[in-house]
Structure formats: C-alpha cells, structure tokens
Design brief:
two-stranded antiparallel sheet, alpha+beta, 183 residues
Length: 183
C-alpha cells in the first residue's frame, strides 16, 4: 500500500481544481455502487464545512465531508461531527484508504470541530468497514428536515446510523433527529 497523505481543509478553502477532482472521485465511487436507494431520491443535502482528503503521489484517492451539528438522541442534545460522502476512487478501493482517512480524522473531529461524537449514515453493506474503524451502530432510522416551497417538512429515512465516541460521553438511546438537512 502506498503512503496516504492526509489533509483537512475548510470547504471554503478548496481550490477549483481540487473541487473538480473531488467531483470526479465522488461520481465514479458512487456510480460503482449501483442503483440508489429510492428513499434517498430528491433529498437536499447539507453543505459541508470541512473535507478530509487522502492523496497518493498527489492524486486524490479518497475523501469525505464533515460538518458540525447539534442533533438529538432521545431527549438529549449532542454535538456531532457529521461525516458524509465517504468516497474512494474505484481504482484505489479495497486498499484501506478510506479506513486510514477515517481513523486520521478522529483527533480533527474531537480537537478542531469540538464534537462529542462522529455521526454518519450508511448502507448495511458497508457497516463492517465503519465498525472496523470503531464506529458503533446506534439506530436504523433518523429524522431530518427538508424545505420544499420554503416550508419545513420532516422526513424519516430507514438506514444504518453509526456514531464514533470522541469523548467519554455515552450516546443516548432514543429517536435520532438531525435537526436540519441530512449529510
């Protein structure tokens, strides 16, 4: 395995050329996944605040997006580093790069984002990848908001919801509400 150079950038600081590479990797990675789950159709997603980027020989091979959000679990509010869009270029998949990137992001999520947990959603097929990096399944659905025609619409998606503890706090049981757009 080649050495992975890892960088964290604010989304606002990503140069146009790198945006193009990110779009290409994302398109190829998710195209390789196949048909999209119909419950994810026509959803407006939250904008990211940070990017975790993995390069091999100055070539972007893997990345994911992050944002800070206070979500609710049961009756408690919890600060999370929302992780989304985890993607690896198909030519570089199955080499452990996404796992390396996820592990390297732990201190960033804890010390820079100041989150108590990492939080992501994923299909059951890739749950073992995240579990291997210390993520724990805490639910099979979550509530979120959409804003069609300027009105708040609350929706539920049934999928794997996972957290990564970043502090000593214990995740609260109960319904998970993203309290805004999903990521």
């Amino acid at each position: 395995m080649s050495d992975l150079k890892i960088t964290f950038l604010r989304s606002a600081d990503v140069p146009a050329e790198l945006h193009s590479q990110i779009d290409t990797v994302s398109s190829l990675a998710f195209q390789a996944v196949g048909d999209e789950d119909p419950q994810f159709k026509d959803i407006t997603w939250a904008n990211s605040e940070w990017l975790a980027l993995g390069f091999v020989d100055d070539v972007l091979v893997s990345f994911f997006c992050m944002l800070k959000r206070q979500v609710s679990a049961g009756d408690e509010l919890i600060w999370t580093a929302g992780v989304g869009g985890v993607a690896t270029h198909p030519q570089w998949q199955k080499k452990g790069y996404a796992s390396q990137l996820l592990r390297a992001a732990v201190p960033f999520m804890r010390d820079e984002i100041h989150a108590e947990f990492g939080l992501l959603i994923c299909s059951d097929l890739v749950e073992p990848v995240y579990a291997g990096c210390g993520w724990q399944r805490v639910g099979s659905s979550f509530t979120f908001e959409q804003y069609p025609d300027g009105k708040v619409e609350r929706r539920v998606i049934h999928t794997c919801v996972m957290v990564l503890p970043l502090t000593d706090r214990v995740w609260s049981a109960g319904e998970i509400d993203f309290r805004g757009l999903p990521w």
